[in-house]
């Protein structure tokens, strides 16, 4: 049933393949834990760093975004050395959640964090990270969710009785999983976890003094400072391999919140023909260069609904690797549409990178919607009944 | 004091309080038809009457004109910084702080005693037309989120910035940028004779809530809440009413009666491995005729019974 697209024959049909690689997105095949892959994954980089796993397609090192559902849609996870751009929804209600999931996943896995923001103090952002769900409690969460959703699954199957004992189709929490954890949005992360983790914060109003009026090479000073900061951290802590004494390798997770806001000193949001129209593009280009040469992954949230010049949005999309856009129904006419009453918004996967590859892991599913339940953020495919309905009316 | 009864008195006070309670930037968007300075003055009056200090950056009208209509106790609580008379500081009296209007704003932010502070800017449009939008946004953000001064208690002190914005003067860019910074946004409008305020509360990490209030402003700048126009005409009929029922005109039966359900449940399905089937398979010949094969040969069929592989020397 799981149609494995590539390298199926080579890897051996008897091995169970990860759910992410199947074309249909509903398979109960689970990968049997990462084994020591000697030669077929290639590269000394894959000495296992906590919280990473090699992609089953091409051995690319992946980190989890903090949302296992999003990991599945992106082809297993976010590749190390790439940028995940999240286009913010209109009132910026749900995009901070994705940002926080990414950082929380970093804390749980013991990665180093670098949080940059012009709006909020990074220490405050870290205080509000969601708490991780422990194995027992999260199994309970999932069971009650599944029971609420499908009450008729209790009926004994009459025709397909052989499948009655097979595991459920949803990707449920795997006990003691090392990749992709579940979080409880209604609770805060325990302070001890933050205190034992290593993080660096960049809060723009503190770093900028009003005396700096240096305009160099058309990059706004705020971006310039941020790039220097990131470069320093990467160099000093040896994420680019520059410090050979370091035995234990680790991943640097960079989170930049609301890039492009006027608070950064960039006027892409203020006018259509802005003076520093190339500032944002340059920043992303240099940032990507820094990321590619180090063991780091970056999430950037950007309020693209405020950017006036659509050409800039296209440039920004091309310069980022993975692009996900959130569109919430708040305030739009879709809020009252009965089709969407179960969901809070739509999520669009705009771009998936082709890294060392000719094709990308693009999922067939285009109609994805998200919902923020009391404790979980879920991403679901809009059911076909609704799509049929929407075409009729 | 408002002339309405006790209910009306409480309601206008509540509404203004809710606007001021959230803190941060309160953006008042007005237009040529529905001017916002009176609403701004009503908010200032409310803040002053609750005992706070109100600092005003006046750019568009003179100080006398602004203070007109306020009672003396309200006026005594207002600290007015006048940029109207001499915006470029040509008279060089030495009063104006360095840095121009934004410097004046930053100075307001620093020189305060503990306690909630309200800063009113009349108007933000004036600032946006003379300063880059990014700088204005940065200064407003610094005002609303200022870190407490050393020596005072570490509790965050409430700073409210009331900004008047003439939205017709600016493109969607600056207006959008300021909206994203604002905690509360009030858009003034109305129909003939009645003013309305469409209020959007953006509490952090919560969904924004919308509210529309009809009001009129009395000469002493207190608010009088109104009911709203009687005929609320619906310009957009709900496009989702009366959907077509897809279950009409079907060629099959979607609903089963109880008897039909029982009959359906009693059916033995062909691939269901029940005990009867097992018996039937184990004892095939009992009472059943042997199965026949009926075969009609076609014109092209070869009825040669020989095995074609016999020719092979294998």
UniProtKB/TrEMBL annotation, chain A:
Gene3D superfamilies: P-loop containing nucleotide triphosphate hydrolases. Keywords: Cytoplasm, Nucleus, tRNA processing. Transmembrane segments: none annotated. GO terms for cellular component: cytoplasm; elongator holoenzyme complex; transcription elongation factor complex. It is found in: Cytoplasm; Nucleus. CDD domains: Elp4. The keyword Cytoplasm applies. One of its GO terms (biological process) is tRNA wobble uridine modification. Residues 22-45 are annotated as: Disordered. It holds the Pfam family PAXNEB. Component of the elongator complex which consists of ELP1, ELP2, ELP3, ELP4, ELP5 and ELP6. Component of the elongator complex which is required for multiple tRNA modifications, including mcm5U (5-methoxycarbonylmethyl uridine), mcm5s2U (5-methoxycarbonylmethyl-2-thiouridine), and ncm5U (5-carbamoylmethyl uridine). The elongator complex catalyzes the formation of carboxymethyluridine in the wobble base at position 34 in tRNAs. Belongs to the ELP4 family. PANTHER family: ELONGATOR COMPLEX PROTEIN 4, PAX6 NEIGHBOR PROTEIN PAXNEB. This is Elongator complex protein 4. It comes from Oryctolagus cuniculus (Rabbit).
């Amino acid at each position: 049933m799981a149609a494995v697209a590539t390298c199926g024959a080579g890897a051996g049909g008897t091995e169970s393949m990860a759910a992410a690689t199947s074309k249909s997105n509903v398979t109960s095949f689970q990968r049997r834990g990462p084994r020591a892959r000697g030669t077929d994954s290639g590269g000394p980089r894959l000495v296992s760093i906590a919280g990473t796993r090699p992609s089953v397609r091409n051995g690319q090192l992946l980190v989890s975004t903090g949302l296992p559902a999003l990991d599945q849609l992106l082809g297993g996870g976010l590749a190390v050395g790439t940028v995940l751009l999240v286009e913010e929804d209109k009132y910026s209600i749900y995009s901070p959640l994705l940002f926080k999931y990414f950082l929380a996943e970093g804390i749980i896995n013991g990665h180093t964090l670098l949080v940059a923001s012009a709006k909020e103090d990074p220490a405050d952002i870290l205080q509000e990270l969601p708490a991780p769900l422990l194995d027992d409690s999260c199994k309970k969460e999932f069971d009650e969710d599944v029971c609420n959703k499908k009450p008729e699954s209790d009926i004994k199957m009459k025709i397909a009785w052989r499948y009655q004992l097979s595991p459920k189709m949803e990707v449920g929490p795997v006990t003691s999983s090392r990749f992709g954890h579940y979080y409880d949005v209604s609770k805060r992360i325990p302070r001890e976890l933050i205190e034992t983790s290593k993080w660096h914060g960049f809060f723009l109003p503190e770093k900028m003094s009003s005396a700096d009026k240096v305009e160099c090479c058309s990059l706004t000073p705020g971006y310039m400072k941020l790039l220097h900061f990131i470069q320093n951290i990467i160099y000093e802590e040896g994420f680019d391999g520059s410090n050979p004494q370091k035995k234990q390798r680790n991943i640097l997770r960079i989170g930049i919140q609301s890039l492009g806001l006027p608070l950064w000193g960039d006027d892409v949001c203020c006018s259509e023909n802005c003076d520093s129209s190339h500032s944002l593009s340059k920043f992303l280009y240099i940032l990507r260069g820094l990321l590619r040469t180090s063991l780091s992954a970056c999430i950037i949230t950007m309020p693209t609904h405020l950017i006036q010049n659509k050409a800039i949005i296209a440039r920004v999309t091309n310069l980022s690797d993975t692009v996900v856009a959130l569109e919430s129904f708040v305030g739009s006419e879709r809020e009252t549409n009965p089709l969407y009453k179960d969901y809070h918004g739509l999520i669009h996967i705009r771009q998936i990178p082709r890294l060392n590859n000719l094709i990308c892991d693009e999922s067939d599913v285009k109609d994805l919607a998200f919902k923020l339940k009391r404790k979980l953020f879920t991403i679901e495919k809009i059911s076909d009944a609704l799509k049929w309905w929407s075409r009729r009316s | 004091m408002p002339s309405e009864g006790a209910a009306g008195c409480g309601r206008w006070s509540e509404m203004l309080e809710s606007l001021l309670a959230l803190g941060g930037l309160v953006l008042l968007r007005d237009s040529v038809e529905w001017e916002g300075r009176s609403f701004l003055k009503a908010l200032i009056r409310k803040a002053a009457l609750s005992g706070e200090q109100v600092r005003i950056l006046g750019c568009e009208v003179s100080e006398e004109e602004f203070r007109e209509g306020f009672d003396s106790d309200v006026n005594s609580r207002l600290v007015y910084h006048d940029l109207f008379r001499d915006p470029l500081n040509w008279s060089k009296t030495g009063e104006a702080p360095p840095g121009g209007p934004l410097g004046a704003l930053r100075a307001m932010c620093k020189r305060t005693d503990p306690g909630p502070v309200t800063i009113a800017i009349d108007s933000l449009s004036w600032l946006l037309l003379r300063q880059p939008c990014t700088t204005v946004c940065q200064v407003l953000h610094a005002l609303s989120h200022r870190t407490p001064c050393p020596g005072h208690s570490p509790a965050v002190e409430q700073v409210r910035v009331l900004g008047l914005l003439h939205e017709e003067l600016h493109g969607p860019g600056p207006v959008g940028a300021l909206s994203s910074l604002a905690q509360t946004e009030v858009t003034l409008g109305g129909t003939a004779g009645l003013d309305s305020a469409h209020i959007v509360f953006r509490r952090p990490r919560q969904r924004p809530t919308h509210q529309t209030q009809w009001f009129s402003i009395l000469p002493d700048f207190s608010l009088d809440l109104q009911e709203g126009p009687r005929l609320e005409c619906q310009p957009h009929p709900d496009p989702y009413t009366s959907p077509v029922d897809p279950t009409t005109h079907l060629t099959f039966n979607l609903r089963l009666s109880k008897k039909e359900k029982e009959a359906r449940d009693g059916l033995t399905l062909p691939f269901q491995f029940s005990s009867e089937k097992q018996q039937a398979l184990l004892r095939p010949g009992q009472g059943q005729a042997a199965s026949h094969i009926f075969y009609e040969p076609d014109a092209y069929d070869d009825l040669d019974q020989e095995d074609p592989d016999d020719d092979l020397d294998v």
